[in-house]
Amino acid sequence: MLEIKDINVHFGGIHALKGISMTVQRGEIVTLIGANGAGKTTTLRTISGLKKSTSGQILLDGTDITNLSAQERVKRGISHVPEGRRVFPAMTVLENLELGAFLRRDKANIAADLKMVYERFPILADRKKQLAGTLSGGEQQMLAIGRALMSRPDILFLDEPSMGLAPLLVQEIFNIILDINNAGTTILLVEQNASMALKIAHKAYVMETGSIVLSGTGEELMQSDGIKKAYLGG
After folding, report:
1. Which residue ranges in the chain fall short of pLDDT 50?
2. 72's torsion region: left (phi>0), alpha (psi -120 to 50) or beta?
3. What's the confidence (pLDDT) of residue 52?
4. What's the pLDDT at 234?
5. Which domain covers residue 69, as residue numbers?
6. Inter-axis angle of helices 107-120 and 137-149, nearest 10
7. How far is Cα 59 from Cα 52, in angstroms, rounded to an integer?
8. Distance separating alpha carbons of residues 155 and 158, to the nearest angstrom
9. Is residue 202 assigned to a domain?
10. Half-sphere exposure (CA, 13 Å, Cβ side) for 48?
11. Which candidate, 222, 223, 207, 231, places its Cα nearest to that of 40?
């Protein structure tokens, strides 16, 4: 479905991504783990068109999207939940969700998808007229995911969805991720909570200083002594 070939990214004189190559097959949950500053967020931002690559190729369903705008990539089925949630605080929950469907014109299906989001996140239905900035961190994360789902994506990028959340909410967010995947959406997940991420991942990549240094199934990496020591507290 998604294929990244030898992507390089520079920030001025800094070589941020160094020949990144990876694949995400339709229906998978694929996770990127690594320390802060490893290049995980830059990888997501580059694939979704928010950061320009210096070289390399990004293919979606066999089509080269390397030079397409972020908006065009959304039209082709990519949706991105950014780090820090980034909801619009002065707009209501409903207005935030409607913005997720901004590029769509199929009003009947938009209404059906809004109903689906409310069914998946009942708290959002209860608070649809409430300003997004007044929601708790967990509720804002649910809103950010719901907003992304309103574009009806084929592949959903999630950047640190558990950041700053209480342990019970972390488990709830991961259950939601599994539910979304089971409903047919492919997931590319960046997550500091390596243990939780590897438990649900079909495939995982480990990043260090802009490079992918290891890959395998989630189970394989969980059993790796090096991964246990570096990321799992083992």
Report:
1. none
2. alpha
3. 95
4. 55
5. 2-85+156-231
6. 150
7. 15
8. 10
9. yes
10. 22
11. 207
Q: Is residue 106 a part of any domain in this protein?
A: no
In contact, 9 and 54? CB cutoff 8 Å: yes
Q: Tell me the one-letter amino acid at 133.
A: G
Number of domains into which the chain is organized: 1
133 located within any domain: no
| Residue 165 domain flag | yes
> Which pLDDT score, from 0 to 100, does residue 233 have?
64
SS3 state at 179 = helix
Task: Tokens for 79, please give them.
Answer: 């949706």
Q: Each residue of 163-196: pLDDT tens digit?
A: 888 888 899 899 999 999 999 999 999 998 899 9
DSSP 84: T
> What's the pLDDT at 219?
92
Question: According to the model, what pLDDT value does residue 192 have?
Answer: 86
Residues in the chain: 234
Q: What share of the chain is helix, strand, coil (3-state, %, to 5)?
A: 40, 25, 35
Separation between Cα atoms, residue 123 and residue 109, nearest integer Å? 22
Report the predicted TM-score, pTM, of the whole model to 2 decimal places: 0.91
**Looking at residue 15, which CATH number applies to its domain?**
3.40.50.300
**55-60: strand order across its sheet:** 14-24, 2-11, 55-60, 63-64
